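Before anything else, study the sequence and fold tokens given here and see whether the fold suits the sequence. Record follows:
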Amino acid sequence: MIRIAVVDDEITFVHEIEQQLSDFLKGKSIGFQINPYTEPAAFLSDHTQNAFDLIYLDIDMPEISGIDLASEIRKKSTETYIIFVSSYSHFVFDTFQYAPYRFIRKEKISPELIQSIQSYCDDVYQKKQYFSFQLANKEVYSACVIKFMYFYSLRHDVFFVTESGKSKKLANRVYTMDGLEQKMESFGFIRIHKSYLVNYRYIYQILEREVVLMPFHDGKTERLPLSARRIVETKMKFQQLTRGEDLL
């Protein structure tokens, strides 16, 4: 069952989202529970006791902003999927550090809402997005896609870094960066450099020649090199993924 929270200070908008999600999920015969909230404090209390799987979160709220609320959500878990909702597209840049799954616009709520829940059901609920990789020590590492922060190569060796910042070496001569890009691109990974393949969910900021990743739990950030020839493509793909658009 998918546990969903809808948080918005406008009651009519909360009910609109709730109804559309309910109609869609019933049509797919997927079990679900939708909790509507117009009071952020009430939502946060419920989420703290039993974390939601998916949260539709309005950014512009008077009591506490959706961005501040996202900060509290991420203190509890990186596995909860956040979809920001707003009438103001420029807010999208303020949401990066909280690894949003999507950003949808209120003026296009119907098509983008359905796209977002369809994507979640396909990518997360049904497929689970689990991957297994053979390590250099012959062990097999299996985890959900959100656990992989980025892949990188060093000379002829290939590694991946987990959400906790730990680096693991992949089996020699089994993986290449080109092969990993082909395998992982459709699951939200962007090739920012010949030696780096990054999970878009962890991108905090895209600068002129580097990509800044969202802070670890200790507050430290990591910066990865961005190839000059990949700047435009990286920004375009990141915006498409954030908005839930198909890259293919």
